[in-house]
């Protein structure tokens, strides 16, 4: 263990860490989220049973989470999934149609009404994702959002299903989204620990 040597900052850091962990404790263990997590698990299975795939999309770190979720859902849970975040696709469609329209245009090539669109967004206000939901509605595709910040954010309001984190910290919301989606995947697998291949 590293010695603090009487550093006064260490007291402030301990308080910071205690407050930080308390936020996670509240969001993960003191909220009634379990029934919603089970409902999302059932939604993913239902999509698979009707021959649809799951299409994950997000911006920034949420794009990385989209890739992670699509890989694990496909590989571990055997539910066909893709992440719509290839850099060539993004830059080509954003260049041709504007960044706010690249996702909806991407969906026009890859999505159908049997599919499920899953959107990760801390703010729930990303215009490219909101426009994607509008496109999904046109083709009668179901939508699910993982958001945070304002409870009345546009993505939460516009999607068919939603999981919302009651927090304004981007890092915490993104971490909770990661825990929730990977937990849901493990729930589908039915095991907490299992071989990766």
Describe the structure.
The chain has 197 residues and is an alpha/beta fold. The protein has one domain: Rossmann fold. The protein has helices spanning 8-29, 34-49, 61-75, 87-97, 102-110, 127-138, 154-158, 170-189; strands at 54-58, 81-83, 116-120, 142-147, 161-164. The protein has a five-stranded parallel beta sheet, sandwiched between helices. α6 links the parallel β3 and β4. The longest helix is centred in the first third of the chain and has 22 residues, at 8-29. The two termini are 37 Å apart. The mean pLDDT is 95.
List keywords for this structure.
197 residues; alpha/beta; Rossmann fold; 5 strands
Rg (CA only): 18 Å
| Distance N to C terminus | 37 Å
CATH architecture: 3-Layer(aba) Sandwich
* Tally of DSSP helical segments: 8
Q: Tally of extended strands?
A: 5
> What amount of the residues lies in strands?
5-15%
Low-confidence spans: pLDDT under 50, at least 5 residues?
none
Give helix and strand order, one letter per element, not per position: HHEHEHHEHEHEH
Sheet/helix structural class: alpha/beta
Neighbour order of strands in the largest sheet: 2-1-3-4-5
């Amino acid at each position: 263990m590293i010695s603090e040597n009487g550093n006064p900052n260490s007291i402030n850091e301990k308080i910071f860490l205690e407050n930080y962990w308390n936020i996670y404790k509240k969001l993960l263990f003191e909220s009634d989220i379990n029934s919603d997590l089970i409902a999302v698990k059932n939604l993913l299975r239902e999509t698979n049973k009707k021959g649809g795939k799951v299409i994950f999309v997000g911006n920034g770190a949420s794009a990385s989470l989209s890739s992670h979720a699509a890989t694990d859902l496909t590989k571990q849970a055997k539910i066909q999934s893709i992440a719509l975040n290839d850099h060539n696709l993004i830059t080509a469609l954003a260049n041709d149609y504007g960044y706010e329209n690249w996702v909806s245009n991407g969906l026009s090539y890859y999505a159908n009404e049997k599919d499920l669109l899953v959107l990760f967004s801390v703010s729930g206000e990303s215009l490219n994702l909101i426009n994607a939901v509008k496109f999904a509605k046109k083709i009668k595709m179901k939508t699910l959002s993982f958001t945070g910040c304002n409870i009345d954010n546009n993505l939460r309001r516009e999607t068919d299903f939603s999981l919302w984190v009651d927090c304004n910290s981007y890092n915490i919301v993104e971490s909770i989204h990661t825990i929730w989606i990977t937990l849901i995947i493990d729930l589908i697998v039915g095991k907490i620990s299992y071989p990766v291949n």
